[in-house]
Amino acid sequence: MPKAGITYGPPIEAPDYEEIKKAAEKQVHDVIGFKRSEDVFDKIRPENPAVKAAQVLEQADAEIALHLNERDQALAHLWFYDPRLGLARTAGLSTMGYRGAIARVVYGDKKHALPEVVSNEALAMIGKRLGVKRVEDAEAQLLKAAPVVYAARARRDVAVRFLQDAVLALSLPPYEWAPERIAEHAGVHRDLIYKQRAAARKRHGL
Q1: Half-sphere exposure at residue 84, Cβ-oriented, CA atoms within 13 angstroms
Q2: Residue partners of 162: CB distance under 8 A and separation at least 6
Q3: Lowest mean pLDDT among 26-30, 114-118, 143-147
């Protein structure tokens, strides 16, 4: 939202996040081999979907970890030193998510309020005092990193649902696998299996 007293540079055109999301979801469906996670309960043996979903999840988490700070450092630079309108849309975030991303990289707390100021000079001074990194060609960095994070999160969201349903299916008859066996089979820590099994049970009202 524009603030009185702040001069903004030209908006940065947002990538087509709807298409990015569709492509990311299709990629997960192609890897796992089907579109409906609930099919593991009666149509598809759940052992392989559990492994494949866990692999997608691991890769998505790695990509997010690699590019999240790049995205958020670019956002912080553009917020403090080169204000632009529509940064949330450019980054593929809600307004709250966008402010939280800046607060996380600046303060280490996504819930921390951003400073209220009335001039570009005051913004820049506060940014310098807070140690906000100046990012050369921040616009290009944002446009490079944000779609990667967005796509990885979209893949992660789909993979989690598949993993949850596969874990639950393996926990029920005729399989009745213990979480430790599922974790070993999927190549993940057992805590993840316990967490996803609990989430799946809640989602299915069990």
Answers
A1: 21
A2: 28, 32, 37, 40, 49, 52, 53, 56
A3: 114-118
The single residue listed with the structure tokens 């403090």 is 80
> pLDDT exceeding 90 applies to what percent of the chain?
93
Mean pLDDT, residues 22-39 taken together: 96
Full 3-state SS string of 134-196: CCCCHHHHHHHHHHHHHHHHHHHHHHHHHHHHHHHHHHCCCCCCCHHHHHHHHCCCHHHHHHH
Q: How confident is the model at residue 3 (pLDDT cuts 50, 70, 90)?
A: low
Q: Considering only CA atoms, which of 30, 142, 36, 130 is closest in space to residue 86?
A: 142
Task: Report whether 29 contacts 158 (CB < 8 A).
Answer: yes
> What is the rounded CA–CA span in Å between residue 135 and residue 69?
12
Between CA 34 and CA 110 the distance in angstroms is 36
Nearest alpha-carbon partner for 162 in 35, 15, 6, 62: 35
Amino acid at 16: D
Dist CA 200 CA 181 (whole Å): 18
The pTM (predicted TM-score) of the whole model is 0.93
Q: Mean pLDDT throughout 4-10?
A: 85
Rounded Cα distance, 4 and 168, in Å: 53
Q: What single string gives the DSSP state of each residue in 12-81?
A: PPPP-HHHHHHHHHHHHHHHHT-S-GGGGGTTS-SHHHHHHHHHHHHHHHHHHHHHHHHHHHHHHHHHHT
